[in-house]
Amino acid sequence: MSTKEFIYGKIISNLLCSIAMKTQKLSKGYLLGLGHRLKIIRTVLNLDQRQMSERIGTAQSQISKIEIGRSAPTLNHLLLIKKVAEEDEYLRENLTWEWIIEGKGKGIIG
Predict the structure, then answer these.
(1) Are 85 and 47 in contact (CB under 8 A)?
(2) Which of 30, 59, 65, 82 has the fewest CB atoms inside 10 Å of its own CB, making it the most exposed?
């Protein structure tokens, strides 16, 4: 593991814990961006919100709220979405936590 991977791992771990525990107030802009990126992942997988909700064990309405920035995903949601995404060869090769969480680096687009 490189130093950069270790540092990003720690940053992602801290951010995911903050999201999951709701200890940090996330800005509306951040939630909109994160929701948009998660919608892109779902779209690339050719899943509708109902199908994605079934795959990760949550309500379709929760997927909708996350995608429009009205709700933060839980740590479990993010882990399960990444796991579902890795079933796709293109996403397995191109999707990174850095892109999901920050919208930077190697991702589906950008």
Answers:
(1) no
(2) 59
Domains and CATH numbers, the chain: 3-102 (1.10.260.40)
Token pair listed for 101: 């969480």
Nearest partner of 32 among 81, 65, 60, judged by Cα:
65
Condensed to tens digits (0 to 9), the pLDDT of residues 26-46 reads 899 999 999 999 999 999 999
Any long-range contacts for 37-42 (C-beta under 8 Å, 24+ apart)? 37/99, 37/100, 37/103, 37/107, 37/108, 38/66, 38/67, 38/73, 38/81, 38/100, 39/67, 40/108, 40/109, 41/81, 41/85, 41/91, 41/95, 41/100, 41/108, 42/67, 42/81
Q: What is the pLDDT of residues 57-78, one digit of tens each?
A: 999 999 999 999 999 999 999 9
